[in-house]
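agent> Task received from the user: take the single chain below, predict its 3D structure, and emit C-alpha cells. No templates, no multimer pairing.
agent> Plan: (1) validate residues, (2) run structure prediction, (3) serialize to C-alpha cells, (4) report one or two observations.
agent> Step 1 OK, no nonstandard residues flagged.
tool_call: predict_structure(input=
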Amino acid sequence: MRIGPRLTLLALLPLALAVTGCGTETAGERPTPGPAELDARARWAQTDTDHVYVTEAEGFELAPMAAGVVGADGFQVAYVTKEGVRLTVSAERRPFSAKDCAAGTAEQDSCVRDGARWYLRSAERHAYVRNENGLRVEVAAPLTMDRKALKGAAERAHHADAAELDAVLPQQTATGQPVERGDLPPVGDGAPDNSVGVGG
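)
tool_result: status=success, residues=200
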C-alpha cells in the first residue's frame, strides 16, 4: 500500500520575492485579500483553503512555483534550501491510522508512533504525519534533513492564515487559464516532476 498519491500540480503562483519560512511577505506590501477572494482562488485551483498548511524551518525558503493540488482536493507546499534540499507540507482528506502504519511497503520501510504523530521512513525520505480536522497533514524531506529538524518543522506546520494563503494560492489569470507551470524541467520531453517518496 502506498502512503500517498502522486502530485497533480495546478496553477502555480510565481513569487516576486523570496519568501522565508511560512511565506507571509507579499510583493509590494499590497493588502491581504479577504476570505471571499481567497476561497474563490482555492476553488479555482480545485482545493479548499482549509487544506492549505504551511510551516517554518531554518534554512528553508518557500519555493517559487512549487505549490499546488495533491490528490483529489488536497494541497502541497514545498520549501527548499540553497543546497536544493526539498521539504514538503501537504494536507488531504486521507486520515492516517495505526493500520496504515503497520502496513510496511517499499515506500515505507518503517513507521513508529512519536507523540501525537507517526514517523515514517523509507530508503531515501522520511516524514511526520498527523491527523487534524479530518485531514492527513504530512511534512516530508530527504534523509539529508535530520529527524530532529524534520520533527520541528512538523510541529510548526499549521493551517495557513490569510497572508500565507495569499502567498501560496495560485492567481487566476485574465483568461481563466492556469499560470505557467513550474514543475516542468528545462530540458527533456517536458514531463512534469511528480517525484514522490515517503509521503507518496
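agent> Step 4: summary for the user.
The first helix runs from residue 35 to 44.
agent> Done.
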